[in-house]
Amino acid sequence: MRYKHSFPITGITWHQYTELVENNYSILRGMLNNLLDLSNYGNSVQGLAFLYIIQQPERDFHKEKIRFNREQKELYGQFLLDVSLILDTSEDERLSIMAEMYWRCLSRFERLEIEDFDLSTFQHDVKEMFETAGLIAIPEASSGV
Q: What Rg value do the Cα atoms of the chain yield, rounded?
């Protein structure tokens, strides 16, 4: 694994929006690294890097993508966060939006079909952690990204 922590979180952010979200990267990264251990979900994944893409609506320089590096045992995902969701919101609201997006985007890794990694349980534990912290409130019947 090449990352210092199991859950690196950062972003590709249009300069006008950086200060709206940069503190939230640290908060989410800290929660995940302090409260979850990837080894509890299998031996195939030792790192899960998550990159938020926040760009001007008319720009599409960066695309969403996911990948799994079996040799490094790293999952990587970069996902678009609609800038209209974070404008004119409080710091707490932005953190909740980003936490919910993180949780919902985990389901996209299912198509990689990683052996010896219990993505479903991991996703459940992330949801539970964020709910306990008061960051998200998702009804049990809710699904999809």
A: 15
C-alpha distances in angstroms, 75 versus 23, 60, 69, 100, 141? 23, 23, 6, 19, 27
* d(C-alpha 17, C-alpha 63), whole Å: 18
What Å distances lie between residue 145 and 5, 36, 81, CA to CA?
A: 26, 22, 12
CA distances from 134 to 36, 99, 114 (A): 17, 10, 30
Q: What is the pLDDT of residues 14-49, one digit of tens each?
A: 888 889 999 999 999 999 999 999 999 999 999 999
Taking the model in full, what pTM does it have? 0.88
Rounded distance between C-alpha atoms, residue 38 and residue 106, angstroms? 14
Give the residue carrying structure tokens 């694994």.
1
